[in-house]
Amino acid sequence: MNLHSLRLLDALISDLAKHLYGSIGMALEYLRKREWSPYVVGALMGILLTALFIYGQQIGVSTGISRVAALLEEGVAPQHVSKTPYFSQLLSDQVILNWKVLFILGLFLGAHFSFRLSGKRGQRNTIWEMAFGPSKAKRYFAAFLGGIFLLFGARLADGCTSGHAISGGAQFALTSWVFMMALFATAIPVSLMLYRKR
Q1: Angle of helix 3-31 relative to helix 99-118, nearest 10 degrees?
Q2: pTM above 0.70?
Q3: What is the mean pLDDT of each run of 10 residues along the chain (198 residues)?
Q4: Could you give the angle at which helices 99-118 and 62-76 cross, rounded to 10 degrees?
């Protein structure tokens, strides 16, 4: 290579680096927003869902949570897991951290980093306090109890909200559409009842 070619290559690399640095800066600025565009998030979810469909998978969280429970139980009582068909089926692939477990981990990490980047520290949602008072113990107990009911219902319905609404809805599965109609028909009146003005 002659000196002229080296200078052109150096200029090209510098230009690419500037554009890459600018793109990363723009992405970080978008990540720092307090609220993201639902259209952008919807498009990203569509891309993720399409990629998963190509590989024969679908978005869903409750199966991953059940898998984590099976892994924990296998660490404590492996003989019980081997005698339980549901847990045995969940762990049949012999993979400890499959993509569904990593997906759940990503939900927690994504929420944490989104919270940190958005600068929402110090802000509290006061809807619960206005309806039920400031007791943290009551709030944590209600969240824990609600999580139990939610996971039980998701396993009973053979899928959670993301599994039915996003994956099943995209496939026009009748059971998913019935699930979502029942969810909204129940959730709206219950939330109006629980969070009515006192």
Answers
A1: 80
A2: no
A3: 63 67 68 79 89 86 85 88 85 81 88 79 72 86 90 82 84 88 89 73
A4: 110
